[in-house]
Amino acid sequence: MKTEINEQLLLKGLADNSRKAVETIYKENFKMVQTMVVGNNGSLDDAKDIFQESMIVLYEKVKSGSFELNCLIKTYLYSVCRRLWLKRLSQAQRTSPEIESLEELVPVEEEIEMHEQRNADFHIMEKAMQSLGEPCKSLLEAYYLQKKNMVEIAGSFGYTNADNAKNQKYKCLMRLKKLFFDQYKNKE
């Protein structure tokens, strides 16, 4: 649900010419397109061109007012970039004669499935973190997100030494792992 709201806000921001929305879409999606283009006979400049063209396509669709996105922005942009890149490869005849189909060159279905699965896993992890409770949630965020060491964590959380903080982090991690896999099993 949170992802859908963020996606809608990004599309509204794009329609309103919000620089922040455009930058966020670039930041979250360019690497994926770069990997696809560079991995398939392209350069970084090709990837930038293709991504820019796909952003224009998305912008024009959003500005039309009748555009309804039925997937993630990431999936939509990847699909547009893939088509644009395949078209450009076809025009430039960069592919070798052994390749029977450009579809073989760019394995989209597996990559899209992989990205969607990763997004689903992150969503489950986010839910598990929310249900973890304090002080475990803050302790794990301090260690993994804020990159604090055990001495700093011991001081911040009132543990007598770094070893006690490390033991608590381990217990919290095990609780998080259990919550994650319980929610993961319920998803299926």
- DSSP strand (E) fraction? under 5%
**SSE arrangement, N to C:** HHHHHHHHH
CATH architectural category of the largest domain:
Orthogonal Bundle
Q: What is the residue-averaged pLDDT?
A: 82
CATH class of the largest domain: Mainly Alpha
Helix amount, in percent? over 70%
Contiguous helical run count: 9
CATH topology of the largest domain: Rna Polymerase Sigma Factor, Chain: A
The backbone outline, from C-alpha atoms, is: elongated
Number of spatially distinct domains: 2
How far do the termini sit from each other? 18 Å
- Class from helix and strand fractions: mainly alpha
Radius of gyration: 22 Å
SS elements, strand count: 0
Point out poorly predicted stretches.
none
Main sheet attributes: strand count, strand direction, barrel closure: none
Description:
The chain has helices spanning 2-15, 19-38, 44-64, 73-92, 102-105, 108-132, 136-145, 150-157, 162-187. The chain is mainly alpha-helical and 188 residues long. The chain has two domains: 1-106, Rna Polymerase Sigma Factor, Chain: A, CATH 1.10.1740; 130-188, no CATH class. The mean pLDDT is 82.
Key structural traits:
single chain, 188 residues, mainly alpha, Rna Polymerase Sigma Factor, Chain: A, 9 helices
Question: Outline of this structure?
Answer:
With 188 residues, this protein is an all-alpha fold. It folds into 2 domains: 1-106, Rna Polymerase Sigma Factor, Chain: A (Orthogonal Bundle); 130-188, no CATH class.
